[in-house]
Design brief:
By secondary structure, the chain is mainly α. Strands 1-2 form a two-stranded antiparallel sheet. Helix 1 runs antiparallel to helix 2 and helix 3 packs antiparallel against helix 4. The longest helix has 28 residues. The protein is flat and about 75 Å long.
């Protein structure tokens, strides 16, 4: 199994676990004399099996990410770099958006609000970071499809 396939399966299992939790919640109470739409014990077994499979995949994915290197960096390091860059990009976008807002004055005597940063420069940085993030993500995706999951 390729690392990318394991990542896809992990995402599917996470969605399935959420659905199973919801279905279990919908079937743990029943009016006296009635039956539940689904058997809670069967749903519980499915949930337990899914969680067990998820734990296996997470451990294998983490091991593979720690052992696989691209250009001298492990996948774990590249993922951390990507996450940090994504966080920085999000913060910068929010700041640039706030600074770009124009405030209208009804009268010339009202306080004029203007940006305290050079929005154009921030936007240029945002564009450069967006490109860097895209390229980093492409590198990770390519590696994920070319790397076998350590089992």
């Amino acid at each position: 199994m390729k690392l990318a396939e394991a990542l896809q399966e992990r995402a599917d299992i996470n969605r399935n676990i959420e659905q199973l939790k919801s279905r279990l919640n919908n079937n743990v109470l029943v009016q006296e004399g009635e039956q539940t739409a689904e058997k809670p014990e069967r749903l519980k077994r499915e949930l337990d099996d899914s969680i067990q499979r998820l734990a296996y995949l997470i451990s294998r994915i983490n091991l593979t990410n720690c052992e696989t290197k691209i250009g001298g960096q492990t996948l774990t390091e590249l993922i951390a770099e990507k996450d940090a860059l994504s966080l920085k990009l999000s913060a910068y976008k929010e700041i640039a958006y706030t600074a770009s807002q124009t405030s209208y004055r009804a009268r010339g005597t009202e306080i004029k609000i203007k940006p305290a940063i050079a929005v154009g420069k921030w936007q240029a940085e945002i564009d450069a970071m967006s490109k860097e993030l895209r390229l980093l993500d492409n590198k990770l995706q390519a590696c994920n499809w070319n790397t076998d999951l350590i089992e």
